[in-house]
Amino acid sequence: MPAAQKSTTRRTTTPKPKPELAKCPNCDGTGEIAETVRVGARKGRATDNHQTALCLTCWGTGLAAA
What's the pLDDT at 64? Predict the structure, then answer.
């Protein structure tokens, strides 16, 4: 005599909430910062000019690291 088959229901898992990511405090969420241009071979005199650079804290994503 065959065994009676039990009905199986699929178990669903609740999705885990994604962690809230805050804006990077160094670049304010833009991913870029302004670096001062330095000139001169030995002393590296700072000028009034600026250039944009990639934010090294968030690697240009604009989101703070954990």
Answer: 78
